[in-house]
DNA sequence: CGTTGGTTTGATTAATGTCAACGCACGTGG
DNA sequence: CCACGTGCGTTGACATTAATCAAACCAACG
């Protein structure tokens, strides 16, 4: 099922979708576009009127600093929206760029408005936004209170869970098409330090790296080491676990 | 106008409210409750069904770490919602506690749903959520890429702008009823270091501290020093600038 | 007064940054 | 097929930032 639309796979965690919902969601992901690695999808200050959705690849939100440094504040994985919100905020306060080659869709704003007339989809999109926020909070905790090796270990756990939720990881293995410099920009740490910390995790037998393929060798140990608790991702236990009992839909908006 | 309902003052930055909207918003802020300093409003894991709104005082979102440390991931100022979202996510992935004595309102979920049937209010609440997210991103940048003194300076600039937006700061002065330990928990820095960094800012003539009263002595210099750019707060230039031309209301939800 | 919570100081150590160089794989043009 | 350039990973020596530990200090308050 790894080739199923990652958006749907993801949103299933946020709301109980009907076949009709799924059909509708599939219909927005038709006019795909292939974008090279290291291309900007949107830049800080711009006012786009379409919403970008990543269907495949690896992208990020980032801010440039005046000293030329870059701070990556989020990784965007298959199924992630880039700028669902920007219509309300007016202009982008950060940029979005690909890290690896990506398949993206540009969804016109009217289409989004149409989607959100469907209560379960609207709820799922809210859910996705709020999970993004929860991830930001957890990154802040990592950045502020965890030493670099635990921070990196925590990030790898998060990526494993998020990628698994969209069928992009299996058996503790996933692709991380990112340079150590980019990792450093996400961790707030120098490239040199990323390299050393990575070595330590390998020496400790927690992970292995073959090219850009990450293998989590001992997830329980890595989880313990980084004090990772997946609660903040608000995923259902099993992906697509339809056996969970029905919850009311509190149409917040 | 500093005693006007801070929620309304804040939301005016996010949408063009009508008198009717304002009347409605005022009506939710009636059954206020006084909460002592250092009390939890909600704890991680709980599933509250009311929404908390801070009307006065100083609160924070935080997460506890297993080593006993605390990470403060947001400051909640007058006009800020604590948990507008939690209905959708199910359970809290962090706690919320007061730092100073607070006046809070608990708004039942139905009331929120009623509010969001009004398009301008719905839009304003979306806006508030997205600004919270933007603030998180900026904190992440600060944490990852700014040395502690710039990080602290940046935070003070942010607080000045946010408090000014709700009429709680004037002339570059505002109350910061927070201990240095709590500041450290927010900056991801030890108490001792907060103290030293604070001294430096005072020695450099950028700020002054009399008790819990912060005075920004040289805002342009502090802004430059911390590379603060208020864009991410998405405030209108002048508070309540009704001269701005009408923008369409993209009822996202 | 003595206690308590918060701030301040100094000495020492640990984490991470910076600079500089090297190695290695890959691709490209001669 | 080879020489070279380029991007990325790796290493070592050294500098800086911030953590830790411990103590002193200070004001508020019962």
Explain what this protein looks like in three dimensions.
Two copies of one chain form a homodimer. Chain A has nine helices and ten strands. With 253 residues, chain A is an alpha+beta fold. In chain A, the strands form three sheets. The first copy, chain A, has a four-stranded antiparallel beta sheet with strand order 2-6-4-5. A three-stranded antiparallel beta sheet of chain A has the order 1-7-3. In chain A, strand 9 and strand 10 form a beta hairpin. In chain A, helix 6 (148-165) packs across helix 8 (191-203) and helix 6 (148-165) packs across helix 9 (219-226). The first copy, chain A, is globular and about 50 Å long. At the A-B interface, strand 5, helix 3, helix 4 and helix 5 of A face strand 5, helix 3, helix 4 and helix 5 of B. Chain A binds a DNA duplex (30 and 30 nucleotides) through helix 8.
């Amino acid at each position: 099922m790894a080739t199923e639309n990652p958006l749907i796979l993801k949103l299933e965690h946020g709301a109980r979708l009907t076949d009709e919902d799924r059909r509708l969601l599939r219909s927005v992901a038709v006019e795909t576009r292939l974008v090279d690695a290291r291309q900007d999808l949107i830049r800080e200050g711009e006012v786009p009127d379409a919403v970008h959705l990543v269907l495949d690849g690896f992208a990020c939100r980032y801010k440039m600093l005046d000293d030329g440094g870059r701070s990556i504040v989020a990784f965007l994985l298959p199924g992630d929206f880039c700028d669902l919100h920007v219509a309300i905020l007016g202009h982008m306060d950060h940029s979005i760029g690909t890290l690896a080659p990506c398949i993206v869709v540009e969804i016109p704003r009217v289409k989004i408005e149409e989607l959100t007339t469907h209560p379960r989809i609207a709820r799922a999109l809210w859910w996705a936004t709020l999970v993004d926020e929860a991830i930001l909070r957890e990154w802040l905790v990592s950045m502020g209170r965890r030493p670099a090796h635990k921070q990196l270990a925590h990030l790898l756990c998060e990526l494993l869970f998020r990628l698994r939720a969209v069928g992009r990881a299996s058996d503790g293995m996933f692709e991380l098409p990112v340079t150590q410099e980019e990792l450093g920009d996400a961790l707030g740490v120098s490239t040199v330090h990323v390299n050393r910390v990575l070595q330590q995790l390998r020496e400790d037998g927690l992970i292995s790296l073959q090219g850009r393929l990450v293998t989590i060798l001992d997830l329980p140990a890595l989880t313990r080491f980084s004090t990772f608790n997946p609660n903040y991702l608000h995923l259902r236990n099993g992906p697509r676990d339809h056996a969970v009992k029905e919850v009311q839909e509190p149409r917040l908006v």
